[in-house]
Amino acid sequence: MAGGTQRVYRARIRSTQSLKKIFRAMELIAASRIGRARDKVTAAGPYARAITQAVSALATHSDQPHPLTTERTDTNRVAVLVVTADRGMAGAYSATAIREAENLVDQLQAEGNEVDLYVMGRRGVSYYRFREREIKRSWVGSSDAPSAETAQEVADTLLAAYDAPAEEGGVKALHVVYTQFRNMVSQTPRVVRMLPIEIVEQEAGEGEELLPLYEFEPNPEQVLDALLPRYVSARIYSFLLQSAASELAARQRAMHTATENAEELIRTYTRLANQARQAEITQEISEIVSGADALASA
C-alpha cells in the first residue's frame, strides 16, 4: 500500500514539474512582451492628446452641428464594443471586462435601449456564443498585439453602424468597454461613450499647458468631417493598446503566481512521498523483526 502511494506522489510531482515549466515559460514570454506594449501605449499618448485638442478647438469654432457630435433620436439601438483576450491564463482579465460589459448592457436595456454587441478577443466571443447572444461583428487573433490596421477596421465598422439609417440597424450611441493600464499591478476596466462625441472645452489653469491656436482651411465644418473619424480611430487604437498591455501584465502576474503554487505543490508531494517511503521502510523492518522473533521462538 505504501509503495503504491509513493508511486502516485512521484507521478504527481512529475506532472506538476511539467506544468511549472509551462507556467514559467508563459511568464517569461509575457514579461518580454510587456515592455513593447507599454512603449506603444506611451508612444500613442502624444498623438491622442494632440488630436483631442484639435477636435476640441474645431467643435468650439464650428457653428454647424455634426452627425458625430449630435444625439440621434430616430433609433433606440446602442452599440457596445467589448475588448477581451484571445487566450486564457491571464487571471481575471477577460472576466472582469465581460462583467463590466454585462453591467453596462443591463443598464442600457433598463433604459429601454436595444444593444448590439461588437467583441474583440476569443474569450469574449466564446462567452457570448455559449449564452447564445448575437454578436454583430468580432475580431480575434491580435488582442495582445493590436495593429493600427485592426483599430481602423474596428473604427470603420462602428462608424458605419452609427451613420446607418435607423431602418438599416443604425445606432444612436457607441460605448467601449476596455481595460485601462495603470501599472504592472493595477489594470482597471473602464466604460467610455465614444459616440456621440462629447467635447468639453477646458480652461488652462496656472502651470497647465495652453491649447495651441489653429487656423482651419477651408472651414471648420469640412475639417471636422475629416478629423472626427481619425479621432475615433485614434481613441479606439489607444483603447486596444491599453487593453493589450493590461492583458500581458495580468498574464505575467497570473503565471508567476501559478509557478509559485506549482513549487509549493511539488514540496508538498515530495514531503508526502518521503513519508510514504518512511512508512514503507518501517513496515519492512517490522516484518523482518517479526519474522526473526518467530524463528527464535520456534
Gist?
The chain is built from 5 helices and 5 strands, in the order H-E-H-E-H-E-H-E-E-H.
List keywords for this structure.
single chain, 298 residues, alpha/beta, Pyruvate Kinase, Chain: A, domain 1, 61% helix
Describe this structure in words.
The protein is α/β, with parallel strands linked by helices. It has a domain at 66-201 and 213-251: Pyruvate Kinase, Chain: A, domain 1, CATH 3.40.1380. 61% of the residues lie in helices and 13% in strands. It contains five helices and five strands; from the N terminus they run αβαβαβαββα. It has helices at residues 2-61, 93-110, 122-130, 148-163, 220-297, and strands at residues 77-83, 114-120, 135-139, 173-183, 186-195. Strands 3-2-1-4-5 form a five-stranded mixed beta sheet, sandwiched between helices. α4 packs across α5 (220-297).
Largest sheet: 5 strands, mixed
Radius of gyration: 29 Å
Going by CATH, the architecture of the domain at 66-201 and 213-251 would be: 3-Layer(aba) Sandwich
Oligomer: single chain
End-to-end separation: 30 Å
Q: Which regions are unreliable across 5 or more consecutive residues at pLDDT < 50?
A: 200-208
Tell me roughly what share of residues is in helical segments.
55-70%
Number of strands: 5
Give me the secondary-structure topology.
Blueprint: H1 2-61, E1 77-83, H2 93-110, E2 114-120, H3 122-130, E3 135-139, H4 148-163, E4 173-183, E5 186-195, H5 220-297
Helix pairs in contact: 1-5, 4-5
